[in-house]
């Protein structure tokens, strides 16, 4: 998919949970080369190995160990073409905009720009077609941009559920309603995150803003792009075939991997059988794989037959955390079909998605 050119990249929020996963993955990437790291003023000017509280199972890659952490200012990243952002959402908005204005390609995990009508919200296994919004985003910037843009990836729980939903819509037409109950890992809240006193021996039935994000982001991701007669593009928010989504989000004492119980009703009657649903999920191939993105999972969705899978401890590393696990596909007595999804929140739910998005942008000639 790519010539021999190496592309220098920077990571913002490099000391955080998502930033560390970016570094682990990018240190072995075939054409993205880690070049600069940024974090808060608390970490800036320190060697990365001194600034970070490293929580990955593999050691700190040697390529970054002795890099000096920079402040998150575009001039400190001048040699980079691509910026991956794992910034805290409290600060991500204006920092990412400053990098876009300075003509960087920015791939963000933060929620700040997901609702922007000109920013693609891309789950790379689902809606790579939304990159078509980038020329308009550049043109509407003041002054217009040549190279800069922002692409965000989705909330980690949204990412897990939209992949099977997209597979089902591709096979059986629009989904009319979807009910989701999540069991979310503590790594979703960053480090140190939820205190052990709150989460051990416990379930917390509230994650601020999460349900609203799932219910809204799903519509943007599964919707298409419409174009008016005068050529203005907009995300159609699944409006042509309205989809209703209800989410209930819970924090559970799991380190990594979000589990979600999902029930769906299809618009088309009669609905597919559980066996037809299993076959559609297994045969789903992502655009990212078709585009030969090196970080895309070969098998997008694995469907378990065992009645007690997927489980976070056993299944979160499926395809290096890039694949989605589904199990317990069965009839639902209220809607049509119900099943369980497991997605690695830090990999495909965060860093891996951004990296595949950047690979897609390279394959489409946008970078
Ligand atoms: N964890 C997950 O599963 C997912 C996270 N996300 C999103 O990704 C982003 C990162 O999450 P996560 O890694 O969990 O968060 P962490 O809290 O672990 O890390 C936050 C990072 O932001 C940096 N930072 C904080 N304040 C500033 C500042 N003023 N200027 C520059 N840098 C700053 C921190 O640097 P320092 O160490 O110096 O303080 C740190 O590197 C968030 O927006 C989150 O919502 C999205 C999907 C999944
Ligand atoms: N809120 C998610 C992680 C996250 O940061 O989501 P978002 O990027 O949508 O704010 C969780 O706690 O599991």
Automatic annotation (TrEMBL):
It is an enzyme of class 1 (oxidoreductase). The keyword NADP applies. Pathway: Amino-acid biosynthesis; L-methionine biosynthesis via de novo pathway; L-homoserine from L-aspartate: step 2/3; Amino-acid biosynthesis; L-threonine biosynthesis; L-threonine from L-aspartate: step 2/5. Catalyzes the NADPH-dependent formation of L-aspartate 4-semialdehyde (L-ASA) by the reductive dephosphorylation of 4-phospho-L-aspartate. Mediates the second step in the biosynthesis of amino acids that derive from aspartate (the aspartate family of amino acids), including methioinine and threonine, the latter of which is a precursor to isoleucine. This is Aspartate-semialdehyde dehydrogenase. Signal peptide: none annotated. Residues 8-134 form the Semialdehyde dehydrogenase NAD-binding domain. Belongs to the aspartate-semialdehyde dehydrogenase family. SMART domains: Semialdhyde_dh. NCBIfam families: asd_EA, PRK08664.1. InterPro entries: ASADH-related, Asp-semialdehyde_DH_CS, Asp_semi-ald_DH_pep-lack, NAD(P)-bd_dom_sf, Semialdehyde_DH_NAD-bd, Semialdhyde_DH_dimer_dom. It catalyses: L-aspartate 4-semialdehyde + phosphate + NADP(+) = 4-phospho-L-aspartate + NADPH + H(+). Its EC number is 1.2.1.11. The active site is at residues 156, 258. Keywords: Amino-acid biosynthesis, Methionine biosynthesis, NADP, Oxidoreductase, Threonine biosynthesis. GO terms for biological process: lysine biosynthetic process via diaminopimelate; methionine biosynthetic process; threonine biosynthetic process. GO terms for molecular function: aspartate-semialdehyde dehydrogenase activity; NAD binding; NADP binding; protein dimerization activity. It comes from the Eukaryota.
